[in-house]
């Protein structure tokens, strides 16, 4: 439960980062995520997240015709989305540092303790 | 546009039904269904199985999507009175055709309202259940019989209770009954225009025309009532399927 909660928060951040680059549609985002190693996450997971981010005003969307197949919905970041991404990056840096620090210290002490 | 696989097609249909039965907004349902359809189509072109998109449990995925969508009060304000008013008009027009005057016990009026609401809730629960669990068509049909059957039994109990006991109520003369009938008919047309659906009028005709024909047979009143009710509820069930089918068709044309 808390694990999926955390995962969602992380995915939110990654999606915001992916959308920042250029206007992008759902399938492309999913592909990009799996390239980055999120292959375990089923692709459809991004849509409920996008729905929430859109409701919260972090992203906006526009439908465009595509050469192959049906219309695609392209997403882009709003000003609020940019702010949220900055905040996420800040949170993530701190978290990453804390986790790395904890693991480094504890595994070191753990191995000394058992020795 | 290349065709979706049967499995993906079914998932999209089930998702629509699930969200519709959960009282979500039509436009929002259309948006997410289109987006997922496009995704599934592209995934299939690249040889990905549907599980890679919707995960191992379609039910959990539907719940995830549903939880991000608001409950659409306006849609319910549109459907619920339509169905209840429909039930009332069926009964009123039936009575007018039977003996040109209206007589209702309070028990019957209140009971009909309660039974109608229960029916709507049961139908939507069955829709949500079958849509999210990929049940077979046969099981879907059998499950759909539960609300229809429960409702029929309750309505019949109500009708017999009303017929064989003296209950307090209102009784109108022929003129007053006709005026009420006319007002009801005008409201009925008004509602149909407002809700942009002729379904109530179509159903009214569909139920009362056989009833008129049944009258010419040697069947007793009870048998006619039961046949009439059966037809009504079968048609309400059909109406929901028809709505979803139509939603799908409009999109196919637009897309």
TrEMBL record, chain A:
Domain Transcription regulator PadR N-terminal span(s) in chain numbering: 15-86
Domain of life: Bacteria
SUPFAM superfamilies xrefs: Winged helix' DNA-binding domain
InterPro entries named among the record's database cross-references: Metal_resp_DNA-bind_regulator, Tscrpt_reg_PadR_N, WH-like_DNA-bd_sf, WH_DNA-bd_sf
PANTHER family to which the protein is assigned, alphabetical: DNA-BINDING PROTEIN YIZB-RELATED, PADR-FAMILY TRANSCRIPTIONAL REGULATOR
Name assigned to this protein: PadR family transcriptional regulator
UniProtKB/TrEMBL annotation, chain B:
Stored SUPFAM superfamilies: BH3980-like
Keyword Nucleotidyltransferase recorded: no
Pfam family for this entry, one: HAAS_TM
Keywords carried by this UniProt record: Membrane, Transmembrane, Transmembrane helix
Bilayer-crossing regions: 76-97, 103-129, 141-161, 173-191, 198-217, 223-242
Protein name: HAAS transmembrane region domain-containing protein
Electron transport recorded as keyword: no
Upper lineage: Bacteria, Bacillati, Bacillota, Bacilli, Bacillales
Domain HAAS transmembrane region as annotated: residue spans: 90-204
Gene3D superfamilies according to UniProt: c-terminal domain of poly(a) binding protein
Organism in which the protein naturally occurs: Jeotgalibacillus salarius
